[in-house]
From TrEMBL:
Keyword terms of this UniProt record: Membrane, Transmembrane, Transmembrane helix
This protein's record includes keyword Transmembrane: yes
Ranges annotated as spanning the membrane: 6-28, 40-63, 110-128, 140-162, 174-194, 214-235, 255-278, 290-308, 328-352
Name of protein: VanZ-like protein
């Protein structure tokens, strides 16, 4: 039992790393398909990932020591089906005339190991039927393939990292794990009467996807700026005469003002989050509206604070009177505070789905392009 607790703890340690790798594609997929991320879906999907991670850690851990690894030269296989039944009977020591000995059937190691393998795969079948909407035959096949993947992992010595197998390839594990998946499929059936169905979860997701949330805006902008950075790096040889900062500005302006004209109002970030820039009155805005929208956006949120700070620094350099340093520092602090309040107000308005200043002045807005399936 202590070994299982140690393995579970190692899975907990690895889980944040797996989440970090998985989260960005998961966010992109959900926003592209549904236009929203439902918290209950997140809980289900991430619990499924954690469950699979625990299973994988139980299969590969503990790893053999270097001394033991040096002695591994051949792969071990147990290919006799249902040998575990013979092992259980052999270790049970049942005396028909003594009922108390019957308990040895369920209390011996062979039975407990196999019952653990059975219940280890039960959640897999439950997830497949409830969330992934798999049929009985699909659950059977996927449960078999999952167990086969784990057995091959053991047979190959962790994909030939080790010279031989440090765990036994057992055909009985294939049988028991597959039965566990089927059992999970059967168990979750009655529970689906009280649990919200996958279709109901999707319906809520699509409904929320009709609105443009603050987080959706942030995700879209994050992807856009990532693409701008990549394009700037790739186009650097063509823009050698420009400083890297100036090249970044040129790419940013072109990306946000020219690309939407060619793609009917969508940047790559908009495409990923299933949104588009449209006119306040509906339809495509005039071509210069894209330029005005992002000129105002970057000008007010980024360049205006920079220019104000540069102006304050110039005043401080011109005036060498030390007695006025505190005054300039106070002005700088007040400007920073006003800028923070402006950002806070903008964030609140975006969270409340209110039109922002650069949208009103450019007569544009962000609209969801999610197609309800």
């Amino acid at each position: 039992m202590n070994q299982y607790l140690i393995v579970s703890f190692q899975a907990v340690v690895l889980f944040p790393i797996v989440v970090a790798v998985f989260t960005l594609p998961y966010i992109a997929y959900n926003y592209h398909k549904y236009g929203s991320i439902l918290s209950l879906k997140v809980l289900i999907v991430y619990s499924f990932i954690f469950y699979l991670l625990c299973m994988y850690c139980l299969v590969i851990l503990p790893l053999p020591s270097p001394e033991k690894a040096a002695t591994l030269h051949s792969h071990k296989m147990q290919l006799e089906p249902f040998l575990f039944i013979k092992d259980i009977i052999k270790k049970a020591h049942v005396i028909p005339s003594e009922p108390r000995t019957w308990l040895t059937i369920v209390l011996n190691k062979a039975f407990l190991v196999n019952i653990l393998n059975l219940f280890l795969a039960v959640p897999f079948g439950m997830y497949l039927r409830y969330y992934f909407k798999k049929s009985f035959s699909q659950t059977f096949i996927l449960s078999l393939l999952l167990s086969l993947f784990f057995e091959i992992t053991q047979l190959t010595g962790l994909y030939f990292i080790y010279s031989g197998s440090y765990r036994l390839f057992d055909v009985d594990d294939l049988i028991v794990n597959t039965l566990g998946g089927i059992l999970g499929y059967a168990i979750v059936g009655p529970l689906m009467i009280i649990l919200p169905s996958r279709d109901e979860l999707d319906e809520v997701s699509y409904k929320r996807g009709m609105e443009i949330s603050l987080f959706r805006r942030v995700v879209s902008f994050f992807f856009d700026m990532a693409f701008v950075t990549i394009i700037t790096i790739l186009s650097r040889p063509l823009m050698k005469p420009f400083h890297i900062v100036r090249a970044f500005e040129i790419v940013t302006l072109s990306y946000f003002s020219v690309l939407p004209i060619l793609t009917k109002g969508s940047t790559l970030g908009n495409f990923i989050t299933s949104t588009a820039i449209v006119s306040n009155k509906g339809g495509r805005p005039k071509f210069f509206a894209y330029f005005l929208r992002y000129f105002l956006f970057f000008g007010i949120y980024l360049y205006l604070p920079m220019y104000i700070r540069q102006a304050l620094e110039k005043f401080m350099l011109i005036n060498t009177d030390a007695s006025k340093d505190m005054g300039y520092a106070t002005i700088e602090l007040l400007v920073a505070l006003l800028y923070f309040l402006f950002l806070l107000l903008t964030t609140i308005k975006a969270a409340l789905h209110r039109s922002l200043f650069y949208e009103r002045w450019s007569k544009t807005k962000i609209e969801s392009t999610v197609q309800v399936q």
